Amino acid sequence: MGLTGKLVAAIEFKAGGDVYHEMFRHKPHHISIASPARVHRFDLHEGELGHAGSIISWTYTHDGKQKIAKQLIQTINEEKKLIEFKMLEGDLMEEYKDFLITLHVETKDNIDLVTWTLEYETLNEDVGHPISLLAFFIELTKDIETHHAGN
């Protein structure tokens, strides 16, 4: 039996939260331009960009290794600027039974926050928590901010 967990990171984003949400919703193929060391490729397998029910995949480098993630865009809530990516296949699924990645952009006290939430169930108790993956998303957010804000 595996362990379930939830990791959350909220990162201030100075380039405008709308920019971040729009990039992941409508221009995910541009993410590799903003963060070429981390994200190498985006593919749309089924559906349409920016629509729930679409199946996508990413080629990325995490922990020094090139990896692949195939995901279902499970939910898009435009009002809340929220997107849920349910893992279907790929390297993560070698250790996790279920994996849901939620991206949420919100503004609090005139500060835009990008929040990444990882919800998961490991295949067994020997699998660690995906803390380095959460760090990957934090660094990806910083890369995109630098790309858009020119910091």
TrEMBL record:
<feature type="domain" description="Bet v I/Major latex protein">
    <location>
        <begin position="2"/>
        <end position="151"/>
    </location>
</feature>
<dbReference type="InterPro" id="IPR051761">
    <property type="entry name" value="MLP-like_ligand-binding"/>
</dbReference>
<dbReference type="InterPro" id="IPR000916">
    <property type="entry name" value="Bet_v_I/MLP"/>
</dbReference>
<protein>
    <recommendedName>
        <fullName>Bet v I/Major latex protein domain-containing protein</fullName>
    </recommendedName>
</protein>
<dbReference type="Pfam" id="PF00407">
    <property type="entry name" value="Bet_v_1"/>
</dbReference>
<dbReference type="InterPro" id="IPR023393">
    <property type="entry name" value="START-like_dom_sf"/>
</dbReference>
